[in-house]
Amino acid sequence: MTVTLLVAGTVLVATAATLLSIRAGVRGSSWTLLTSMSVTAVVGAFLAGRRPGHPVGWLLLATGLPFLVGQGADGLARVGLAHPPVGPGAATALWVDNWVYPPALVPLFVLVPLTFPDGRLPSRRWGGVAALAVALAVVLAVLGAFGQVTLFLGRATVPNPHAVAALTAVAPVVMTAAGLALLGCSLGATAGLVMRTRRAGRAERQQVMWVVLALVVVASAFGVDASVALLAPSLYPAVFPFVQLAPVVVPLAIAVAVLKHQLLDIEALVSRALVYVTLTFLLVAGYALAATWAGAALPGSADPLARVLATAAVAVAFAPLRDGLQRIIGRWLYGDRARPYAAMTRLARQLQRPSAPEQVLVTVVSSAAQALRSPYAAIHLDDQPEPAAEHGTRPVNGSSLASVELTHAGGSLGRLVVAGRGREALAPADLRLLADLALPIGAAVHAVGLSVDLHRSREQLVLSIEEERRRVGRDLHDDLGPRLAAISMQVELARDMTLSDPARANALLGELLDQTEVAVQETRRVAHAHRPPALDTLGLVPALESHVAHVAAVPVCFEVPVALPPLPAAVEVAAYRIALEAIQNVAAHAQARSCVLRVLHDGRRLTLEVADDGMGVPDTPPVGLGLQSMTERATELGGTLTLLPVPHGRGTLVRAVLPCRTGA
User: Fold this and answer.
1) Which secondary-structure segment (H or E) carries 374?
2) Of 410, 392, 65, 56, which Cα lies nearest the Cα of 207?
């Protein structure tokens, strides 16, 4: 019932204003102003009835109804002035028409931005702005009603019967200052509304963005109005009606924001509108200024044809500037999605800069975010639960996230995850650019992985060498060193006893021979731990045959299709240790009756295979020390070790592939 009464009353006022305007023969911009204010009042009445506790509806009514009253008073005054003598009703209507509009702007352009969307001020300090705006509205109303000496209606003037001498002296200056202060309050309230979006939730931000967009449209309309009035006055009568109609977007935006604020994703629309409205305003102002200057500079500038030609010339000159500005704006909004080659080139140049491996991933995610104007980008590797590199802050709502797989040489490395701009999902063009960027980023991730593995291998190699040196030093210091020192002392004792007790000296020398033999054996043991002597005296295959002949628990058949060339010492030791460990595993775990040891060399790598006829590879192969040792020996040389079932038959195949170029 409240909604019906409010809307019906507002429609009645709007109808009365319309009938009075028709009777007075009003033309031009008054109709567009009447339309925009009728919509403002009706929307305000509807919102006030639906949400009586929310001030926005009442504020819209506080703007729309005074304007409708003023429009009706304007029509009534025109009718009275057209049929003299002017009656008291027409005089009062003219008086109302001259002061009702300025104070009515305060609710729409100051109080609505300050209290939207929750009906409260953003903070207490904004209370001063609201109080100042209300005070300015009162001042404008009082001075407009009682401080003007003359009342205006079009070109007609009538003395103000309600003028107060004390106010007429200060009214012009005070009203100008009040108008400027009111403009400052409006700009401040709009800025406060924009700042509110920073700490607002998604629903509230959606509501605010609708109103921000509407205020941008109105401000742009007023800017065009001022530009045309200053630069092209002859066009002003055609432009002004549209300016009067522009405020209608504010109540419509408020209605959408309050009643169905999730109708559209407004954030992207606001950002684009801000940029493109600014661009349009600059171009229009530039067109008007340059056309005016060119028309005045041309001979016969009073000729309309000369002005048309000047305007056309300026338009042609501005076309490249317009295209350039649009490209700049497009890049600012959407990044390099229209220029994938530029994005790839920038990424390549950034990767050429020297940097640590861990910094490379940060560089590529930053470049991807920059190319797509994304607030967040990250690289997730397959073997890591946490992101390997991130740029920006991950959005709480992950619905706008898009990802593309990072691959290299057909293998998957991870995923590149990028967030959409604001809450806008990435468009197909963005996804195509993301897929293009994934190719060099995948190569970079692979290179970083190789660099990290190489660094770790070097660290492990250095640690292994130092550990081996420590072990050798400990063996020499704790065992061989004391043994040789004792032998030296006993030799001195035997020398001293040679003359005094030859028999005792001879017995002592015999004991020294035994101790020396033990020391020699200990020295051989230490040397054998580093490199088996059989490799130096026999070579790889004969050394394996000699060892297997003495200690192998299962028969071993050797297959060496061609004679092996001289091998690097490290490859020989690794192949020797891997082969012996594999044969030992066959005897201990495979339950095999025999095995085959195959050694091949193709000029680039040495392949060692140990195949048995045992129980085969279990479903979950155990990772013991032996298998781990073989794997480490192969990978230290850049090779591989695999555990496979025998291709034809039953059993297990251990294959080690070690890089080994002939003559290396």
Assistant:
1) none
2) 56
**Pick from 345, 405, 393, 389: which is nearest to 371 by CA?**
345
In a domain, 655, yes or no: yes
Same domain as 550, residue 523: no
Using the 3D structure, point to which of 406, 424, 453 is the last residue of a domain.
Answer: 453
Per DSSP, the residues of 581-618 read HHHHHIIIII--S-EEEEEEE-SSEEEEEEEE-SS---
Residue 186's closest CA among 227, 99, 265, 247?
247
Place of tokens 């609201």: 130
pLDDT tens, position by position, 287-323: 555 555 655 665 554 455 555 655 666 566 666 766 6
The average confidence (pLDDT) of the chain is: 78
Tokens of 140: 């404008």
3-state secondary structure of 123: coil
SS3 654: strand
CATH (domain of 351): 3.30.450.40
CA distance linking residue 472 with residue 525, whole number of Å:
11
Give me the domain span that covers residue 500.
Answer: 466-530
Nearest Cα neighbor of 654 from 139, 320, 629 is 629
Structure tokens at 76: 């009534």
Q: CATH number of the domain that 563 lies in?
A: 3.30.565.10
Output the CA–CA distances (angstroms, integers) from residue 334 to 209, 375, 430, in the order listed: 20, 12, 8
Query: Do 589 and 508 belong to one domain?
Result: no
Amino acid at 124: R
529 vs 468: CA distance, rounded Å: 10
Q: Could you identify the residue written with the tokens 């690097």? A: 568
Q: List pLDDT tens digits, range 105-138.
A: 888 888 888 888 777 887 788 888 888 989 988 9
Please give the C-alpha separations between residue 597 and each of 132, 555, 637, 645, in angstroms, as whole numbers: 97, 10, 21, 15
Total domains in the chain come to: 4
Asked whether the beta carbons of 72 and 13 are under 8 A apart, the reply is yes
291 occurs within a structural domain:
no
Structure tokens at 434: 């993301």
Retrieve residue 642's tokens.
């695999």
Residue for token digits 């800069």? 353
